């Protein structure tokens, strides 16, 4: 992870002061500015803007100009401008998503960036799954996630920016390309991708807005339950069941392996809430297919994370070490393929 | 020439113990972000310790199984490339019991090194 200098923080503070003044129409003071997470390429900053005595809790999402994005990230992730428009459409459709406020301009010099409202809650699975304050919330999360997802999938496509359409076959081809680029033979992933290829669901007549990274760790929770859905950068058009399958991938249960819905409930609970909230009826075979797909997908992401370090695009022990997590998904895949032949 | 003790595994275990029990708590008090990174490092050292101890025998078993499965002798990486190719083209699939037994055994050895607690 790159260390950000105080100069970078000062620059960001100055630009945010100017941009929030433009947006709110009054002089703004920037307080409590701090970098949250992410690598050098995709940054999240938290800050408060005090305008006319009113305090606004805000988040800056920012891709600095030309900073170590891998080929694959450029290929599958949307840019910040598109993410902003997806968020605006989803928020307007009543999805629990952060309210996007304004985009920064090229003249601001921070790269591809926008500002949204900050929502309370935490995303840390370990705490959500075990800490006492979240006791009551734990029982609600699976159902809430099903309900929210139905709303995401119901977002009116006419309100969305142009998005890539990605069907099962496209995903399989993309992962095979990714394995070829890594150049290291992966028999279990090859087996799983061929299994998936032979059983792939037919493309839908009407693809929907797919969140693309709907999982524990990417939503915030407070004592009352889910407060907002984050991380929209993998949004695309496709099969709604993709999001349901991804949420149930074992890696997102963070040890609560007997509760497939993100570590908080059963698949059936999740699907029932999804259907009650107006989502289509969930075909268990299709859901299993997407869960298997999600498991291979995460395994190959692990290898890709390590590759970012190995290729020199970023220098990070943390990224390097994720490569050794790929085998966890190989264990899970052999298990899953036995279950649903 | 053989090195004196500690063995590689013993030395890695000693380093991991020190970093986990002494360095990490100190970092947590002063630099929590580095404390987190240190946990990642300690975890990686534990993987290396198991790999040094268990890796060579696991690789030998995998190689022997692959020679039997593919019916020819070649370096491990080359045999895995061939197996991966056959799996992509569909020449072999999950209906092949010998294949599945090989993969189960290989992944069991891999996870025993990378994360023995995974289930």
Task: Characterise the protein shown here.
- The complex is a heterodimer of chains A (341) and B (119).
- Chain A is α+β, with helices and mostly antiparallel strands and 341 residues long.
- Chain A has two domains: 112 residues, Phosphorylase Kinase, domain 1; 215 residues, Alpha-Beta Complex (Aminoglycoside 3'-phosphotransferase, Chain: A, domain 2), CATH 3.90.1200.10.
- Helix content of chain A is 45%, strand content 16%.
- In chain A, the strands form three sheets. Chain A has a five-stranded antiparallel β-sheet. Chain A has a two-stranded antiparallel ribbon with strand order 6-9. A two-stranded antiparallel ribbon of chain A has the order 7-8.
- In chain A, strand 4 and strand 5 form a beta hairpin.
- The longest helix of chain A has 27 residues.
- The N and C termini of chain A lie far apart (42 Å).
- The model of chain A has no long low-confidence stretch (mean pLDDT 92).
- Chain B is mainly alpha-helical and 119 residues long.
- Chain B has one domain.
- Helix content of chain B is 79%, strand content 0%.
- Chain B has four helices and no strands.
- The model of chain B has no long low-confidence stretch (mean pLDDT 96).
- The chains are: A alpha+beta (341), B mainly alpha (119).
- Chains A and B meet through helix 7, helix 11 and helix 12 of A and helix 2, helix 3 and helix 4 of B.
